[in-house]
């Protein structure tokens, strides 16, 4: 496994003239077009990268963009790999490990989720303060000791310093933020009403199908993480979840999400 990760990282270093990103960004729902804000130096289609899986979900492009945003060198994944697509966890998290070897010191993530906290409204941005993992743990299997410990600590999983900075930026920019616990399930079904109630009971504020595997693997390697979720539906209401709604709400939240992420990068 480590050999493949190293091989892919080396291939990318050659393909990008040894571009050294400071931050990795996973452009999920809400940040889909953020790729266009990057002054791109190199763009690599996933399909062209040895060892990379290929993205299949609608609304997700599959490429790795290297460039600068607000003067910061970044590598952005336009399109991520979900467990529900059938990829093993080793593949879902492969790009994060590769990005670490390329030099990232921070990981920024966005996603869509269903609000469970009754004070949340569709279109809100929720800063992820913690998560509950209901998927298989991506670190199951032999530990890659070169990358991190067998039993990684998950305190401060979402970096408190980065969250505080987001709060300051949001106040300054007049962006309303919610805060909460992201419950990561496998999908691809949206939750039943009973499951949303269960997620609320166990301490969740929003339900989604991504992010948790990538963040676990990043924390294993000691990378500070920051995540924001667009609340695209309210799980405990009578409305039914639907992929197109998720995409639409994601697009609506995009401007606020972009402002926040750009300022976060500027102030790293
Ligand atoms: N549940 C899980 N994932 C989601 C949801 C949801 O309600 N909304 C957007 N992604």
Explained architecture:
The chain is of the alpha/beta class and 268 residues long. It has 7 helices and 9 strands. The protein has a 5-stranded mixed barrel, surrounded by 4 helices. α1 (2-15) crosses α3 (94-102) and α4 (160-173) crosses α7 (243-266). The longest helix has 24 residues, at 243-266. The structure holds hypoxanthine. Hypoxanthine (HPA) is lined by residues 112-114, 190-191, 207-209, 232-233, 235, 241, 246.
For the termini, the CA-CA separation is 31 Å
Number of strands: 9
- Kindly name the structural category: alpha/beta
Mean pLDDT: 93
In what order do the strands lie side by side in the largest sheet?
5-8-7-6-9
Helix count from the secondary structure assignment: 7
Describe how the helices and strands are arranged.
Blueprint lengths: L1 H14 L7 E5 L11 E7 L17 E7 L2 E7 L10 H4 L1 H9 L3 E10 L9 E9 L26 H14 L3 E8 L8 H9 L4 E3 L3 H9 L4 E10 L8 H24 L2
The structure holds hypoxanthine.
Hypoxanthine binds next to strand 5, strand 8 and strand 9.
Structural features:
single chain; 268 residues; alpha/beta; 7 helices; 9 strands; globular
Give a quick rundown of the structure.
Helix content is about 30%, strand content about 25%. It is of the alpha/beta class and about 270 residues long. β6, α4 and β7 form a beta-alpha-beta unit.
């Amino acid at each position: 496994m480590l050999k493949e990760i190293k091989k892919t990282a080396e291939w990318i270093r050659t393909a990008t003239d040894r571009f050294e990103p400071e931050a990795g960004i996973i452009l999920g729902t809400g940040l889909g077009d953020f790729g266009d804000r990057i002054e791109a130096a190199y763009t690599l289609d996933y399909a062209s990268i040895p060892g990379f899986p290929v993205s299949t979900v609608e609304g997700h492009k599959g490429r790795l963009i290297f460039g600068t945003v607000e003067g910061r060198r970044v590598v952005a994944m336009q399109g991520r790999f979900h467990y529900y697509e059938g990829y093993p966890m080793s593949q879902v998290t492969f790009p994060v490990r590769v990005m670490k070897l390329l030099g990232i010191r921070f990981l920024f993530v966005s996603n869509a989720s269903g609000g469970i906290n009754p004070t949340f409204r569709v279109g809100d941005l929720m800063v992820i303060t913690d998560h509950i993992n209901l998927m298989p743990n991506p670190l199951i299997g032999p530990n890659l000791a070169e990358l991190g410990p067998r039993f990684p600590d998950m305190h401060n999983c979402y970096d408190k310093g980065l969250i505080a900075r987001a709060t300051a930026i949001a106040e300054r920019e007049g962006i309303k933020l919610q805060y909460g616990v992201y419950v990561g399930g496998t999908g691809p079904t949206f939750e039943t009403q009973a499951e949303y109630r269960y997620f609320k009971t166990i301490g969740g504020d929003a339900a989604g199908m991504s992010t948790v595997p990538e963040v676990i693997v990043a924390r294993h390697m000691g990378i500070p993480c920051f995540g924001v979720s667009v609340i695209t539906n309210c799980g405990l209401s009578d409305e039914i979840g639907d992929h197109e709604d998720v995409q639409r709400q994601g697009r609506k939240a995009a401007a606020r999400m972009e402002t926040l992420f750009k300022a976060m990068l500027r102030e790293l």
